[in-house]
Every structure is written in structure tokens, then in C-alpha cells.
Amino acid sequence: MAGELILVVEDNEKNRVLFRDILQASGYKTIEAETGEQAIVLLQKEKPDLILMDIQLPGKDGITVTREIKANEATRDIPVLALTSYAMRGDREKMLEAGFDSYMSKPIKVKEFLKRVADFFKNA
């Protein structure tokens, strides 16, 4: 575990810094994008082991970007975890149907967040 590269796609700077600090303190490497479009550009240069995707982004939303990631042969196997303030009944199912590999609501609980991230690398 640790040392894996994680792409954090989050437009809220405080959340992005929080996720980065938590992940880096746990030994993960991170790259960051503020928009879905920036994430797509980064994915042409980098191959992260996991993508943490906000849903509400300026420009293309996280659902649209995740569909593009999953439709692209070069990136479709990268797991994508939805990190969202959407926590209504049925939202989890909606995210999974859109191609996300998992779903977590914000605000995060640090221990649960790190466990969820680590779970992606258990069988890798």
C-alpha cells in the first residue's frame, strides 16, 4: 500500500487541499484538477491508480467526465470514486449506473475515507 498515484478532481480548493493532505500523509502521491476538462487533459499524460471525482464541477460535471473516462480504452480500467455532497436516496445507485466504481458523500470522515481508498488497492 501507499505510493499509488491518485487524481483528485475537485473544484473547491479547501476540499482539494484536505484530500491531498490526508492522502499524502498516508503515503499516496496525488495530482489535482479543478475541472473535468483539466482531468481529461491530465489523463492524457498520467495514469493514476485511482480517481476521486467531485460531481458538481464547473464546465463538464463529474458524471459526464466519468462516462468519458469509462468510454476510453486507455482509461476505462482506472477506478473512479464519486465524492459528492449528493446524499439523497437513489443517488448512490445513480452514480454506480453512471460508471463510478464507488460512492462516498461529503463531508468525509477521515478514517472511512482512507479505508475506502485503501480498499481499491487491496487486490491490486
Summarize the structure in words.
- This protein is an alpha/beta fold.
- The chain has a domain at 46-54 and 73-86 and 97-124: Rossmann fold (3-Layer(aba) Sandwich), CATH 3.40.50.
- The chain contains 5 helices and 5 strands; from the N terminus they run βαβαβαβαβα.
- It has helices at 13-25, 36-45, 62-71, 91-97, 110-121; strands spanning 5-9, 29-33, 50-54, 80-84, 102-105.
- It has a 5-stranded parallel beta sheet, with helices on both faces.
- Helix 2 (36-45) packs parallel to helix 3 (62-71).
- The chain is globular, with a radius of gyration of 13 Å.
For the record, give the distance between the C-alpha atoms at the N and C termini, rounded to a whole number.
9 Å
The CATH homology group name of the domain at 46-54 and 73-86 and 97-124: Response regulator
* Beta-strand percent range: 15-25%
Helix fraction, binned, reads 40-55%
Order of helical and strand elements: EHEHEHEHEH
Q: Can you give the mean pLDDT?
A: 92
| Helical run tally | 5
Strand adjacency order, main sheet: 2-1-3-4-5
Concise structural overview:
The protein is an alpha/beta fold. It has 5 helices and 5 strands, in the order E-H-E-H-E-H-E-H-E-H.
Write the layout of secondary structure elements.
Blueprint: E1 5-9, H1 13-25, E2 29-33, H2 36-45, E3 50-54, H3 62-71, E4 80-84, H4 91-97, E5 102-105, H5 110-121
Parallel strand pairs: 1-2, 1-3, 3-4, 4-5
